[in-house]
What does this fold into?
Amino acid sequence: MNRLLLLVLLLTTSAVQAFAEPSLDESRRLYREALNEISRGRLINAEKLAPKLNNYPLLPYLELELIKAQINGVSPQTIDVYLQQYGDTIVGQRIRISWLNKLLRSRDWAQFVHYYQRNSSVATSCHYAYALRQIGDHYKADKAIAELWLTPSSLPKECDIPIKQWMVRLNATETEDQYWLRAELALRKGQTDMARYLLGKIANSEPYVDLLQRPERLYQLGTKLPVNEHSREVAVHALKQLARGDFERTNTLWHQLDRHLNFSAAQNYALRDSMARQIIASDADYTRDWITANDPNYEDPYLTEWRIRLALKDLDWPEVQRTIQFLPAELREKADWRYWWARADIELKGELSVSTQLILQQIAAERGYYSFLAADILNEEYQLAAVRTLDPALISEIEQHEAINRARELYLLGENFTASLEWNYGMRSLNKPEQVAAAQLALNWGWSHQSIMTAIRAGEWNDLTLRFPTPYKSTFKTIAKRENIELKWIYAIARQESAFAPSANSPVGARGIMQLMPGTARLVARQMGMSQPRTEDLVTPEKNIAMGGFYLGQLLEQFGGNRILATAAYNAGPTRVERVLLRQTEELPADIWIENLPYGETREYIKNVLAFSVIYAEKLKLDRPLLASHERKISAANAVTAQKN
It folds into this structure.
């Protein structure tokens, strides 16, 4: 009998009764020892340890490693036993992957097709298409690769041969259509290099490839393009690129090409939105006139919102109230525009009317940035509206859940990625009250990030215990004191940046709890007198928080102790904030300055951080004002101070 099959039978019989039940700490030690034995090739020693771990949650992972170590000698019958036992669990999925890789190496295409599942990686799916071709099922092979083909991103090298095999079966027109389909998909996702590569495969596509490489050529080639959807797609993309430079010239070209190519309503809408973002960011004198000319009937909610913001900047309160009425009802009822309608009403009447007071009281009864602003106007206490629905009795039930138990052990062993996979697998079988109990369980373990994400998953927005934990408290306190920054503020920044995930890694490369870019981390480390940080330093909480706190302290000093500006600089970079301030001609109330910040992501980032600061002030028993007295007005003088620093 196969040794692995014998092992699984042993583990499911009463033979294990002969072993005394080890403690949890002893089980963890034995588990690590068994993994170490496998890594050294001493599989018999590891197999002897396995029965002692029969009740340890991570026994399946030990079995997984034993299977992987012996995969070339494992029989299909043994694999079937394990797959039946573990099903679609994370361990089951990894056993299947290991087995598929073995079948791939042995070129057993029929068996590969038999064991393949649709939720596999792209590379494995391409191997599946190839395997189908090898066993003669060309219809399914074509269908499989055609589905994989339609992606804006690069496909792995494993897909090269299956794609070539598929393309050979297409006629010239079908091949060209496929390249265009994928190129247009890439363009819509901003994947210019991929689109250029794909169009380079099409005969007579040189003008399009040229435009993608040199968008400025649109001025010469635009009116010579054939009138078809391909030309419209490429021209729209090139216009968006050009708008980032010479906006006025691009604006003129847009309207010329619209007359020639006849852009669709959706394409013109996208171009108008792209143009608007550039002109708003430039703060040109004619911004208001351009918006009025391009959206005379208030059909574009994005432009209508900016009309309101620009009216706020002008302190044109009648225009603020008038324009708010043109917003769609769902936007008009949001807290931000109700707040601004009330602010305008106070300015216009010179007093707080009963009806406006009622509006502000309704907003202040909620929780969030505008709610806290409304409470400040009313001179009322902030309402955090914290509510707990946790059923403590459910916690003990959740503790017995197999996937949750595996997640806990993996988390304690530092296997955070796999721990998260197990946790998410476990969440699939839990209802909302059980998910809330699971979030509390994660918090009890010190797994703050999982507590936050699980509470959000459950829609438990008002449980501030789960959503706003205070991990690494001694580290945060020490850094806040040393860098002379508010504890509530650095906590709010960390909560917004990563939700306290030590290994967080953004698409642009920011790492760790404070989401530091590697370049920023190197500069900060040098200024702190530290050695150049390694990748492991960026995901070590204490080091990451120390560097992030130092950088926050620098920004706070650079911007005259103003958290609003320092927060904006932490997100968008100090140069961009200085640029906004230098274009400013007069002092503005802080709420209006934030509302007019041209960077949408940074605008919302500031609002979140300020609101989170209020919540953390309550949790940490600190002063709670949303804005300090010196932060209530922002002027160009702040830029001068920043540049001097």
Summary: Confidence is low (pLDDT under 50) at residues 13-17. The radius of gyration is 30 Å. The beta strands are 588-589, 633-634.
